[in-house]
Amino acid sequence: MDQAAGGGFGFVQQAPNSDFVPIDKRVPAPNLAGPTVAGPDLDLAGFRGRIVVVNFWASWCAPCRAETPGLVTMAADNPQVAFVGVNEKDNLSAAKAFIRDNGVTYPSIVDRIGTLAARWPVPPGLPSTFVLDGKGQLAARFTGGVLADELMPVLTRLAAQT
């Protein structure tokens, strides 16, 4: 099964670089837990009951740099939604500087060698963003940089389903 292409995860392409999973086809998101860039451990399971945006990123990734201000704004404007970053194959000091320089307020789990991402249907290349429903199930995926006007309709749709 080709998980990078979304095989077995029920993704249906909605638009270029955007996939959605019908509610009856959703599966639980893979486990995601570990130390954060700021230090304390975080477990995605602790966000059950909330819509969660999970963004895989790296400081060296140009599209990640481009999308981050929009994600920061969306996180601030939508406090009912949990935002979690996953810092991929990055230098910890560079990741800390990226977070500081971009005013990122949500936590980012460290995935130094990519073992966490390997469990997720992350296509090659960064960034990738996933949206989980309140049950912790994969509901949507964006490959490449995501804009607020692409992500917000998905958040609205999921909120209406709960």
What does this structure look like?
This protein has 162 residues and is α+β, with helices and mostly antiparallel strands. 25% of the residues lie in helices and 25% in strands. It has helices at 62-77, 92-102, 148-161; strands at residues 12-15, 18-20, 33-35, 41-43, 52-57, 82-88, 108-111, 128-132, 138-143. 40% of the residues are buried.
Concise synopsis of the structure shown:
This protein has 162 residues and is an alpha+beta fold. Helices cover 25% and strands 25% of the residues.
How are the SSEs ordered, and which strands pair?
Elements: E1 12-15, E2 18-20, E3 33-35, E4 41-43, E5 52-57, H1 62-77, E6 82-88, H2 92-102, E7 108-111, E8 128-132, E9 138-143, H3 148-161
Return Rg in Å.
Answer: 14 Å
In N-to-C order, the SSE pattern is EEEEEHEHEEEH
Q: Which spans of ≥5 residues are poorly predicted at pLDDT below 50?
A: 1-6
Largest sheet: 7 strands, mixed
* Strand content bin: 25-35%
Class from secondary-structure proportions: alpha+beta
Widest sheet: strand order?
1-2-9-8-5-6-7
**What is the share of helical residues?**
25-40%
Rounded to the nearest angstrom, the distance between the terminal CA atoms is 30 Å
The overall pLDDT, averaged over residues, is: 91
DSSP strand tally: 9
